[in-house]
Design goal:
Distance between the termini: 172 Å
Keywords: Coiled coil
Largest sheet: none
Shape: rod-shaped
Number of helices: 10
Oligomer: single chain
Helix content: over 70%
Number of strands: 0
Structural class: mainly alpha
Strand content: under 5%
């Protein structure tokens, strides 16, 4: 009986011990949870302290920002005042710019007028320079012709001196021969040889210059570029000289720059074709013999 009671007591003791162990385990778990909560609260407290510290710093920064904002507001007022001054200055500058724009337009109109006058003056200057060049070329041609005429006159002067000497000598011989001729013409032999002398005149020799002049006269007579009536009416001094018009042009007129007709320009031809001047040929003779075949022009074409 006692053993059974002891067994029951042991069983109860074991049950109580088991229950106590369970309670102890539960309490340990609760203690661990409390410990974890304490640790968590401690961490939160540290975080709260850090947050408070950061809040203090942020508050200090906010105070500095507010102070800076007040300072910036003052500067902003100054800038607004400056901006107002700038706007007033800009308005004045805009007004000045409009005035300058109007002045620029007036200057542009004046510039266009001056440019037109300048272009006109340049065109006139170019025309004057062209005329000057033409005059210089014409003067040069005239000087060349004068040089040729001077050389021709000097040659004529020398020839005239020689002719004068020859004439004086021939006059002396003529005086001597006239006496002999008078005797000869009264002789019988003179009368008999009259037909023979007439035939000799037909075959009398001429000089090269005379033959050349005769050929040139024949050439000009065949051409319509030499107009005798026009030449005599244009240059009345030719008729007064008693020289044939065609012969005057060949020997004198061309050197003086005279035209053989209204269809041939002597000066223009010599000016355009300098090789004719160098060859010392009569310009119309050159044109009829060579220039016409070479396609040269007798006068300026409009």
């Amino acid at each position: 009986m006692q053993q059974r009671e002891m067994a029951d007591d042991l069983a109860e003791l074991e049950a109580a011990t088991t229950h106590l162990l369970e309670d102890t385990s539960t309490q340990e778990i609760n203690i661990d949870q409390l410990y974890q909560q304490l640790i968590k609260q401690a961490q939160q407290s540290v975080q709260h302290s850090a947050l408070l510290s950061r809040l203090d710093e942020e508050e200090q920064k906010n105070h500095e920002v507010v102070t800076l904002l007040h300072s910036m507001q003052g500067e902003l007022k100054v800038l607004q005042q400056q901006n107002t001054g700038y706007e007033n200055a800009l308005h004045q500058h805009k007004h000045q710019a409009e005035s300058l724009g109007e002045e620029l337009q007036r200057l542009q109109v004046t510039k266009n007028v001056l440019k037109q006058k300048s272009d006109s003056a340049q065109a006139e200057l170019h025309h004057i320079q062209q005329n000057k060049q033409d005059v210089e070329e014409e003067n040069e041609l005239i000087l060349q012709q004068l040089h040729l005429v001077q050389e021709e006159l000097e040659r004529y002067y020398r020839d005239n001196q020689q002719l004068a000497q020859q004439l004086a000598h021939q006059q002396q011989q003529l005086a001597e021969n006239s006496q002999q001729l008078q005797k000869l013409t009264t002789s019988f032999s003179w009368k008999v040889t009259i037909p023979i002398r007439a035939l000799g005149k037909t075959f009398r020799k001429t000089t090269p210059e005379q033959r050349s002049l005769k050929q040139q006269i024949t050439l000009l007579k065949k051409s319509t570029l030499f107009d005798t009536e026009w030449y005599l009416s244009t240059y009345p001094d030719v008729a007064e000289s008693g020289m044939l018009a065609i012969k005057h042009y060949l020997k004198v007129g061309a050197f003086e720059g005279r035209n053989p007709s209204e269809h041939f320009d002597t000066n223009w031809y010599l000016k355009l074709y300098s090789d004719v001047v160098e060859a010392e040929l009569n310009p119309l003779v050159h044109y009829l013999k060579y220039g016409q075949k070479e396609g040269r022009e007798p006068k300026a074409t409009s």
